[in-house]
Structure formats: C-alpha cells, structure tokens
Amino acid sequence: MIGSRIRERRVINGLKQAELARRAGISASYLNLIEHNRRRIGGKTLNKLAEILGVAPVLLSEGAEATLIAALREAAARSETEGRAGAEAERTEEFAGRFPGWARLLTDLARQRAELESTVKALTDRLAHDPQLAASLHEVISTVTAIRSTASILADTRPLEPEWQSRFHRNINEDSQRLAEGAEALVRYLEQAPDARSEIMSPQDELHAFLEEHGFHFPMLEGAGGAARIPAVVARSDRLETEAARSLARTVLEQYVGDARLLPAEVMAEALAAHGPDPAAIAAATGTPMPAVFRRLAMRPEPEAGPVGLVVCDGSGTLMLRKPALGFTMPRSAAACALWPLYQLLTQPGAPVRLRLRQGEARVLALTVSEEVAPARFDRPALARPHMLLLPDPGPEAAGPVREVGVNCQVCPIGDCEARREPSILGRGF
Amino acid sequence: MGKKVILIEDERNIIEAISFILSRDGWEVKTHSNGHDAVEVVRDRRPDLVILDVMLPGKSGFDILQEIRGDAELGATPVLMLTARGQQKDREMAERAGASRYMTKPFSNAEVLEAVRDLVGP
C-alpha cells in the first residue's frame, strides 16, 4: 500500500509526520490519513513526497516489486547489449511474480557482477596509481628489451666478430641476472600487496586501523624521549602492513609527540579539570595553538576528556585523519558531506566555525580551525589543514541553531538536498 | 655516407644492442643517456632521426620532445619514442607531444630497423 510505504520511508529518514507534511505543503492530519491508507494519493503530492524522501515516485506507488522488475529488465538489457540475448523480457513480470526468490537471486548476482567489474577496473588502473609497481615493471621490461635485442643479434648476425660476440654474451648474462632479481622483487611485492587479500585496504585504512587499535592514544610516546620510541611503536603493530602505511603512521606519531611537548599530560589534565573539554579556554590558559589543542583533546583517553571526535582534511578536501565519536559517522574512503563546516575553512581559513550538527540520530557540537602547514609563496598558495573537533551537543541555549548534515551522498537519506552530488543507494534498497 | 641518428636512452645494454644493429645497417649512431642536456646534444649534432626513451634521468622524454618540436630549426626532425608502458594514455600523450612514431618495449630488432627506415626515407 502506498501509505504504508510512505510511512516506512519517513521513519527510515527520521522525519516527523508534521515536518514531512509541512515540507510537502499538506496538513499533518491529511498526511496521517494517507499514511494509514485511508486517502488515495497521486500526481503532484506523491512526486513531492518522493522528492523529499529521496526515492523514485514509482517506488512509493508500486513498491519493491517494481524495483525487482526494473532490476530484472536492466539485467536482461545488459546481457543483450553484450550479445547474450535469450531472456524473455516480455515475461519479466510473470517471472518476478511466480518466482520472486529466484528473481531476487538473479538481480543480486547481476549487481554483484557489476560491482566486481568495477573492482577489476580499479585494479587494472593500479599500474597508473602505484608508482612502486610501475617502477618495478619498468625495470623488468627494460631488461627484457635489452636481452631480446642482444639475443637476436647473437642469433642473426653472420658473421659476428669474436669481440662483439663475447661482449654481447657478457651483456646477456648480466641482464638475465638483473631480470631474475627484478622478477623476484615484483613477485614479492605483489604477494605482499594488501590487494591480494579479500579486502582492499589503502594505506589510509591501515593507518586508521592502527590508530583505532590504540584508541588514538599513545601513553608510551608521552614525556621526554617520546620521539625515539616511535619506530618501536610502528614496528610492533601488525595493522601497518605496507611501507606507505608505516610512513603515514610515523608522520601522525611525530605530530603526536610534538603536541605532547606543547601540552604535556599533566598540563592537559589540569586544564581539563579547570575548563572541561573547551578548546578555546585551554588554548588561552596554556598559550597553545588551537589545532594542537584539538588534536590533544581528541587523542587523550576518553575517561579524561570525554568522547571527542576529530577530522582533519587537506586542501583537496581529502580526509587525512578521522576519529569518529558521539555517533557521528565519517566515510572510510569516499569524500564526505559537502555541508560539513570543515570544508568552509577551505575558502575561509581564517574564519573558525562553532556549530551544532545533526547527522541522523547523532547530535554534536562542531568546532573548526585551520592549521597552516606551509606559508604562502609566490609560486603557490599557503597549504592549510582544516581541523573539525566534535564535542557533545550542549543544546540550543548554549550553541544556537543546528545544521543537518550527512556522511556522504551515497548513504545519505536527506531528500531535497542542494549539496547532493550523487543519488543515494538508500532509495534503491527500499 | 650514412644518415645520422641520436639514441637517447639510459639502459646501457639497450644502447649497445641498438647502436650495433643500426651501425650494421649503415647508420652513424651517437648515443646519449640523460635527459638534462639531451636537447643541446640534438642541436649540436643535427641528426636525421632521434630515438627517444620516455623515462630518462633528469627530464622526461615528453618534455624533450616538446622542446624539439618547439625549436624552429630542430622542429621537423623525425622522433621515434620508446616506452615500457603500452597504455593508451601514454600513446596519446606521445602523439600530442608530436612523436613521429611510438614503440613499446620489448620490441624486436627488426621492428626498430623497419621503423627507422620508414621515418627517414632513402
């Protein structure tokens, strides 16, 4: 029934009946009747509701059956364009009706296949994105070229003077040795590569697995001589499998040690006791730059500082450090929601923001500040890293209005969002 | 009198092998193995043909090619590009930069001879 589907969808989106009614321009009581299937609905109102709920109108009017049929048609059309005709497209509805289980299995397989295809494509592209792999392969191919060319001279040139002959023999011998070493290095690299396992982990993913394992807190790096203990901490972790990830970890830990020097654990504990997790007060009381206070707050143990989240991005908006907290979710690899106040600092690095955020059920207070990591020069602008700290929401009296944000578009239920850059997959899975 | 060819490549044994087959084919071969001053060498030498590797120490083959094409006196010299990457993108880049011909490693000696003979008519 249309009404039940609207209701279900509204609840998924976390919208109140009154709110949905207001945004659709109808009365709450009328929406209530619709939702209980006591009023027929069509045309403009249906389209408006679907738009706000972020789903195709047909999904509301015809339900999942329609989605199943559409997915079956798509699978049939796709295999036809690949030259494998034979699905009885005109009997799709009959098929879906008589064998819904088989039909779902088929559409699931078609979807999985499409996903695998895009993974394969991404891996094929790897040569272009993996400089180490490209360099090893280049070495092997160069050596093969030298061997092939030299061998064919030895085989085809008649007569070949003894001096030349022995020279080319020596070259071939040399190159075959290099080839053996190069091939071995390549095999070793490919075996080690994280892509060989079922889950494709980027160095960033490894770094975050490592940080989460430690709860973003490293007591052994606090105090004098912390920097000297970084290599041991990195070497001990089995989360850091690639050199790229270990190098990222070293950079993060060096910054950790630097921050701990500015704000030692005792000073931090005192400041927290006096001011609570208030970065502005702690920065003023200790004379510490704000970004370091942010990181210190987020990387202290939770019993001391309470739940604190942190996101740091670079000038391209790529998330470099993410510590989720308070139910506020952060995307693992894809870019985040364009409405995060973090990104406002990309255009206005000198204008920190203090704002309450609502993300699904989560409510947080976000504070942002930008850190300049390299000053401006005439051949390039200053390089900055915006930081966004997440603290428990103090409520409207203390912090004003709330902004509704998402995680990223793919998993975002917010319906009519002007910042949306791609459709939500939630609309399809209904 | 043989025609002049400059081979700009950093792999020592490839230099040796290609120099050998081109010399036997009647070419006057000069070799050079870094990117920095490759264009100066071409300018001094005025070859009939340049064989240019894409990956060179100091400067990319694409940059060298662009400089050759941008030079009023050297601009028309035929250039045969060598690369270890057969990707479409590299081929397009070479064509855009003005390569006369593009060859992917590992190539055979016969292919090299055929290409240079084609590029510099009798």
Task: Throw out a few tags for this protein.
heterodimer, A: 430 residues, alpha+beta, B: 122 residues, alpha/beta, 43% helix, globular
Can you characterise this structure?
The complex is a heterodimer of chains A (430) and B (122). Chain A has 20 helices and 6 strands. Chain A has helices at 2-12, 17-24, 28-35, 43-53, 57-62, 64-81, 92-98, 100-124, 126-129, 131-156, 162-192, 203-213, 230-236, 243-262, 265-275, 279-286, 290-298, 302-305, 344-347, 396-399; strands at 309-313, 319-323, 353-359, 362-374, 383-392, 402-404. In chain A, helix 6 packs across helix 8 (100-124), helix 7 (92-98) crosses helix 8 (100-124) and helix 15 crosses helix 16. The radius of gyration of chain A is 29 Å and the shape is flat. Chain B has helices spanning 12-24, 38-45, 61-70, 88-97, 109-119; strands at 4-8, 28-32, 49-53, 79-83, 101-104. The mean pLDDT of chain B is 89. By secondary structure, chain B is α/β, with parallel strands linked by helices. Chain B has a 5-stranded parallel beta sheet with strand order 2-1-3-4-5, with helices on both faces. The N and C termini of chain B lie close together (12 Å). Chain B is globular, with a radius of gyration of 13 Å. The longest helix of chain B is centred in the first third of the chain and has 13 residues, at 12-24. Chain B has 5 helices and 5 strands. The chains are: A alpha+beta (430), B alpha/beta (122).
